[in-house]
Design brief:
Among the domains are: 168 residues, no CATH class; 150 residues, no CATH class. A 9-stranded mixed beta sheet has the order 1-2-3-5-4-6-7-8-9, with helices on both faces. It has a two-stranded antiparallel ribbon with strand order 10-11. Helix 1 packs across helix 4, helix 6 packs across helix 9 and helix 6 runs antiparallel to helix 10. Helices cover 32% and strands 15% of the residues. The N terminus is likely disordered. The protein is built from 14 helices and 13 strands. By secondary structure, it is an alpha/beta fold.
C-alpha cells in the first residue's frame, strides 16, 4: 500500500512534471513521503566520498571509495511509529544506472551502515539503500523500554527503507526501478529472510548468506555451547585444541572427495570419531582428554531439550571450528546475551539462568515474526510471483553453523511442495573452506548479484557458480565450482586441482555422523 501511495505522491509533489521527468538530486529534499523526511540530497563527485567519523571499514575500503563514480547521496529519517528514528541512505548513480535497486544489510545489533557495500553496488550501476535499523550503537540496550525500536530493528526498518528507496528512485530518474534485489550476509541474511517471508513484494530476488536465523535459537545455541564447554573445567578446549581437531579431520577425510586440497568438499560424508584423538600419555595440545571429547561431542550434536532429547538447533558439521571466543569461549558473545535481554525486556538477565526446555518455547513465542524468519510456508507468495532466493553458507563458518543454512533450505523446500516445486525458486550453495560470509582456505568470492539477476530476469537458474580464492597479494590462485545442494564438486581426475573446469557437480556420498542432525 505504501509503495503505491508514495509513488502517487510524486505526481503531486512535483506539480506540472510528468512521471517521466527526472528530478535534480538536490531537489529530492522537496519530496514528500509518508512518515519520512529527506534531510539531505547532494551529488558526491567521482572519488570524493569520505565515510563519516567512526564508520566501519579498514584500509581496503579506501580504494573502493576512490574508485566510486559520481552519485546522488540521499539521507532520510523515517518515523513509522512515534518512537521510531530510522536513518537510511540511498545512493543513486549520476550516470549509467542499470535500472535496479540493491538493498544491503547489517551485522548483529550494530547500527553501522556498511558503506563499502553501498559503494560496491553503485560501482556496478545499482541504486543502493541501507539503514541503521532505527538505533545508534552496537548493543541491544536500545530496546529496553522501547518495543517499537525493537520492531524497527527486527524487520520494519528494512521494509520501510525499501519502500521509500523505491519512491526516491522513481522521483530521481522519472521511472521506477525495474527490479529490486537484496544482497547481504549474517544478520543481513536474517533481514533478507524476514523480507522474503513478511514482505514478498519488496524484492524480486534475494542473495542470502550465512543467515543468523532464527535469531533466538541461534543465539540460544551459542549459550548452550558456551555452557557445555565450561560445565567441567577439565572439558574446556583451547583454540589450539580446536585447530588440532580440525587438522585430524582433514588428515582422515580430505582426500575422500578425490583430491587432497586442504578442504572438505562435503563434511557430511566424513566419518570421524573424536575418540581417535584421545590423549594416550598426558594432556597435549594435539590430542583431547576424555572430558574434552565429551564436551566436543555435546557441541557437535547441537542444542537439545534435556528432558525429551529433541533437537532444538542443529549442531556443527564434522571438522568445524566454532569461534573459540564467541561460541565456545569462557563467556558467550555479547550479542547472544543482548538478544534475550532485549527480548525479555530485562537488562539484568543472566544467561546462566536460561532454561533450554522452557525458555526456548518462550523465546519462539516472543521472537517469531519479530526477529525470526521461522515460517518457510510464507515464501509461497514470493515464489508465486516469480521471486528467487539464492542461499549460500560457508562450510567453515565459525560463528553460525553451516547445518543451520541447510536446515532453512530443507524446511523451505518441505513447506512449499518439495524439490520439484521449489527448485526453480530457491537453491542453496555450500562453500567449502569459507568462513563467516567470506574468507577462509577455499574459493569464497563469487558474484552473487550476477547470479540472482540472471535467474530473475533471464530465467537462468544457477546449476553451478564459479568461486575463486585469492592469495595475500590479491591474485587468484584457485577456482572451484559451487554446486546446488546437495550436489558437491568432484574432481574429474585430470588437470590442475586449482581450475574449476576440472570439477563437476555430482550427487554426494551422504553420511550423517551419529548425533549430528539437522532437524527432527
Amino acid at each position: 500500500m505504501r509503495v503505491f501511495l508514495s509513488l502517487a505522491l510524486l505526481t503531486f509533489t512535483f506539480a506540472g512534471a510528468s512521471r517521466a521527468a527526472e528530478t535534480a538530486c538536490e531537489d529530492l529534499t522537496k519530496l514528500k513521503l509518508p512518515h519520512a523526511v529527506i534531510r539531505e540530497a547532494r551529488v558526491v563527485e567521482k572519488g570524493q566520498f569520505a565515510p563519516p567519523p567512526g564508520a566501519l571499514g579498514g584500509p581496503e575500503t579506501v580504494a573502493t571509495y576512490k574508485a566510486l563514480p559520481s552519485f546522488c547521496r540521499v539521507l532520510a529519517t523515517l518515523r513509522p511509529s512515534p518512537d521510531s528514528d530510522i536513518k537510511i541512505e540511498v545512493w543513486l548513480p549520476t550516470d549509467g544506472w542499470n535500472g535496479r535497486l540493491e538493498g544491503v544489510g547489517n551485522g548483529a545489533f550494530m547500527s553501522s551502515i556498511f558503506y563499502w557495500n553501498l559503494a560496491e553496488a553503485v560501482s556496478q550501476g545499482y541504486a543502493a539503500a541501507a539503514t541503521n535499523t532505527g538505533h545508534e550503537g552496537n548493543s541491544g540496550e536500545f530496546a529496553f523500554g522501547h518495543p517499537e525500536k525493537l520492531i524497527d530493528w527486527g524487520y520494519r526498518a528494512v521494509h520501510e527503507m525499501t519502500v521509500d528507496a523505491k519512491a526516491i528512485i522513481a522521483a530521481r530518474y522519472g521511472n521506477p526501478a525495474s527490479h529490486a534485489y537484496w544482497n547481504s550476509c549474517s544478520t543481513g541474511g536474517r533481514e533478507g529472510l524476514m523480507e522474503a517471508e513478511n514482505y514478498p513484494n519488496d524484492f524480486d530476488g534475494l542473495a542470502v548468506g550465512d543467515a543468523a536465523n532464527p535469531m533466538t535459537r541461534n543465539q540460544a545455541s551459542t549459550l548452550y555451547s558456551t555452557l557445555a564447554v565450561n560445565k567441567d573445567p577439565a572439558g574446556f578446549l583451547s583454540a589450539a585444541k580446536w585447530k588440532a581437531y580440525r587438522s585430524a579431520v582433514l588428515a582422515k577425510c580430505d582426500a575422500e572427495d578425490g583430491v587432497k586440497d586442504g578442504l572438505l568438499s562435503d563434511p557430511m560424508a566424513c566419518k570421524f570419531d573424536p575418540k581417535a584423538m584421545e590423549c594416550k600419555s598426558g594432556d597435549r595440545e594435539d590430542c583431547l582428554t576424555a572430558p574434552q571429547i565429551a564436551a566436543l561431542n555435546t557441541v557437535l550434536a547441537g542444542m537439545r531439550n534435556s528432558r525429551s532429547g529433541k533437537q532444538l538447533h542443529p549442531g556443527w558439521p564434522v571438522g568445524a571450528n566454532p569461534n573459540p571466543t564467541m561460541v565456545v569461549g569462557h563467556e558467550p558473545e555479547q550479542v547472544a546475551i543482548d538478544t534475550f535481554r532485549a527480548l525479555f525486556q530485562n537488562p539484568q538477565w543472566d544467561y546462566h539462568t536460561f532454561d533450554f526446555d522452557k525458555d526456548i518455547a518462550l523465546s519462539d513465542k516472543l521472537g517469531n515474526r519479530l526477529m525470526n524468519a521461522a515460517d518457510e510456508s510464507r515464501l509461497k507468495t514470493l515464489f508465486g510471483r516469480g521471486g528467487k532466493i539464492l542461499l549460500y553458507h560457508g562450510w567453515s563458518d565459525p560463528n553460525i553453523s553451516a547445518l543451520l543454512g541447510i536446515k532453512y533450505y530443507e524446511d523451505a523446500v518441505a513447506a512449499n511442495g518439495g524439490t520439484s516445486k521449489t527448485y526453480s525458486s530457491i537453491r542453496l550453495f555450500m562453500v567449502p573452506g569459507m568462513g563467516h560470509c567470506g574468507g577462509g582456505d577455499g574459493p569464497n568470492t563469487f558474484d552473487k548479484m550476477q547470479v540472482i539477476t540472471k535467474w530473475v530476469e533471464e530465467g537462468k537458474a544457477p546449476d553451478r557458480i564459479i568461486a575463486v580464492h585469492s592469495d595475500s597479494n590479491g591474485a587468484v590462485d584457485r577456482s572451484r565450482p559451487l554446486c546446488p545442494y546437495p550436489q558437491v564438486a568432484k574432481y574429474l581426475g585430470k588437470g590442475s586441482i586449482n581450475e574449476a573446469s576440472n570439477f563437476a557437480c555430482m550427487a554426494p556420498h551422504r553420511y550423517r555422523p551419529p548425533g549430528v542432525k539437522i532437524h527432527e
